From TrEMBL:
Positions of the GH3 C-terminal domain: 465-581
Entry superkingdom: Eukaryota
Single GO cellular component term: cytoplasm
Protein name: Indole-3-acetic acid-amido synthetase gh3.6
Family: Belongs to the IAA-amido conjugating enzyme family.
Keywords: Ligase
GO molecular function: indole-3-acetic acid amido synthetase activity
């Protein structure tokens, strides 16, 4: 029933004509589904519900085989992860009965969002990867309209896998990109001219972050004239790659000059793959050395990879904090955010890929899932809390939800999705703003993640989690009769990798000063209390730097309040912001710092959920 999107031809002898034909069909498909949005959405919902009519979850809510939208909206509740966590746990423990989906769950995709400090587990069925591949195919066709001849060169993408685990029932649990990079289709598709990357598969699949980064950078430099596009999934990862080059260009040049690989690269499969590309090239080594030795690294991307046409990275949401650094490294190259997807579902693509980062909007492709939208209401420019989910609250929200064709320009909504894999009216947690239309399909700006106040990479820390972590850490101050009277935080991305900063104002009643080592212990205590995605970024991926506590003078937060009130905040409604983002506020806090302390070791982290590890 669902329309299929033409796949790419996997033959090396694909002609320019066949590539053009594939692109034409994909663009025609976009025209059709964005014109007939509501019809497609009705069909998608009916297909999902008819397929899964006998699953336990829908029977539990007495849907009784109905596939129409009206009955579905009336009977099926709007949910969060915690509502279905018992069902997820049953599947993870090995229950193979059709609990959420009639088709077998092939694995779990671990979300960057967390529940109880652990990654959320999103069920996935095998055919979902076809939909993700289809979205990629559409995206490539759109980008090719704006940037022609991409198939004539290579992409230098920094791609990394993360550790995976197995549930007690034997299902793999891993991040979506790790799953994609490890699938046979990813390797087989390398024959697709648009999937021709400088990084050999072995370098991507290497779990050692240093060896993976080093070998991918080395291969990218060796093929510098062939590179037409560069990128990583997130802006933060691409910036880490550029900083890595700043720190290791001398070693890389030596490898290129001599045609040998540094001894620190010990993975045999990585060494073998790189040696198929690496050949002695003193001239290239001299060129790279000359560029990297210059005092300024501004525009280093176009200097070392002169044929690059754009930088392919996500720069929406929290990744927007990296735009200025990206522009510094890439000079005037367009920063292109192409796709909107998550562990739960693939959603849409940017139909105007060369737009400014501030203007990025995503068109939801209505065949990917069934989409609904919960209106967001703001009070004093803050998203009004929409949880807890009491029964009466849920009924109210069910009435508020609107369909894809009924959203209003300028209004903000939380995305709610029903998927082929067994999520029904699931709150994704993304806040979107309607920016315009493609035919009858709305286009959305990504605004933020609901309740997230701190993020450096794929980590997401909300206010409640931070509050609990601080509360746990301040116990270290009790022997000195010291107390944290106020605190605030921000994500410092001026360092690479970025790191969390907390400003603490203290009241010290004791006569003994608090030693620096105690504040360092407080830093580690906070990190140990944060979720597993953060701890993995610190301990394994090295994508997040050590947490920092900055002690500020007494009276600092009074000054902060005075400043906010001078800008128009109401003294009656003022509350200390737990995360500061405005530069003047950060500058005010920094101007009153009396000491600074960092976590001295990495927090504990092991793959998988705590309860799984406790069972071993």
């Amino acid at each position: 029933m669902e329309k299929t999107i033409p796949g790419r031809e996997d033959n090396k002898k694909s002609t320019d004509c066949s590539i053009a034909e594939n692109n034409k069909k994909a663009l025609q498909f976009i025209e059709e589904v964005t014109t007939n949005v509501d019809e497609v959405q009705k069909r998608v919902l009916a297909e999902i519900l008819s397929r899964n009519a006998n699953v336990e979850y829908l029977q539990r809510h007495n849907l009784n085989g109905h596939t129409d939208r009206e009955t579905f909206k009336k009977i099926i509740p709007v949910i969060t992860y915690e509502d279905i966590q018992p069902d997820i746990n049953r599947i993870a423990d090995g229950d193979k009965s059709p609990i959420l989906c009639s088709q077998p769950i092939s694995e779990f995709l671990t979300s960057s969002g967390t529940s109880g400090g652990e990654r959320k587990l999103m069920p996935i069925i095998e055919e979902d990867f076809g939909r993700r591949s289809q979205l990629y195919s559409l995206m490539i066709s759109v980008v090719s309209q704006s940037v022609p001849d991409l198939e004539k060169g290579k992409g230098m993408y920094f791609m990394f896998v993360k550790s995976e685990a197995k549930t007690p029932g034997g299902l793999l649990a891993r991040p979506v990109l790790t799953s994609i990079f490890k699938r046979p289709h990813f390797h087989n598709n390398r024959l697709d001219p648009y999937s021709n990357h400088t990084s050999p598969t072995e370098t991507i699949l290497c779990l050692d972050s240093y060896q993976s980064m080093y070998s991918q950078m080395l291969c990218g430099l060796c093929q510098n004239k062939e590179v037409l596009r560069v990128g990583a999934v997130f802006a933060s990862a691409f910036i880490r790659a550029m900083r890595f080059l700043e720190e290791h260009w001398s070693l890389l040049c030596n490898d290129i000059r001599t045609g040998t690989i540094n001894a620190q690269i010990t993975d045999p499969s990585v060494r073998e793959a790189v040696m198929k590309i690496l050949k002695p090239d003193p001239e290239l080594a001299d060129f790279i050395e000359a560029e990297c030795s210059k005092s300024s690294w501004q525009g280093i991307v176009t200097r070392l990879w002169p044929n690059t046409k754009y930088v392919d990275v996500v720069v929406t949401g929290t990744m927007s904090q990296y735009i200025s650094t990206l522009e510094y490294y890439s000079s005037s190259l367009p920063l292109v955010s192409t796709t909107y997807a998550s562990s739960e579902c693939s959603f849409g693509i940017n139909l105007n890929p060369l737009c400014k980062p501030s203007e990025v909007s995503y068109t939801l492709i209505p065949t990917m899932g069934y989409f609904e939208f919960l209106p967001i209401h703001r009070i004093n420019n803050e998203v009004k809390d929409s949880i807890p989910m009491s029964e009466s609250q849920n009924e109210k929200e069910q009435q508020q939800l609107v369909d894809l064709v009924d959203v209003k320009i300028g209004q903000e909504y939380e995305l709610v999705v029903t998927t082929y894999s067994g999520l029904y009216r699931y709150r994704v947690g993304d806040v979107l703003r309607v920016a315009g239309y493609k035919n009858n399909a709305p286009q959305f700006n990504f605004v933020c993640r609901e309740n997230v106040i701190l993020s450096i990479d794929s980590d997401k820390t909300d206010e409640v989690e931070l509050q609990n972590a601080v509360k746990h850490a301040v116990s270290n101050l009790m022997p000195f009769d010291a107390h944290v009277t106020e605190y605030a935080s921000y994500a410092d991305t001026t360092t690479i990798p970025g790191h969390y900063v907390l400003f603490w104002e203290l009241r010290v009643n004791g006569s003994t000063p608090v030693p620096p080592s105690v504040f360092e212990n407080c830093c580690l205590s906070i990190e140990e209390s944060l979720n597993s995605v953060y701890r993995q970024g610190r301990a394994s991926d090295k994508s997040i730097g050590p947490l920092e506590i900055r002690i500020v003078e007494i009276g600092t937060f009074d000054k902060l309040m005075d400043y906010c009130i001078s800008l128009g905040a109401s003294i009656n409604q003022y509350k200390t912001p737990r995360c500061v983002k405005l530069t003047p506020l950060i500058e005010l806090l920094n101007s009153r710092v009396v000491s600074s302390h960092f976590s001295q070791t990495c927090p504990n982290w092991i793959p998988g959920h705590k309860q799984w590890n406790n069972m071993n």
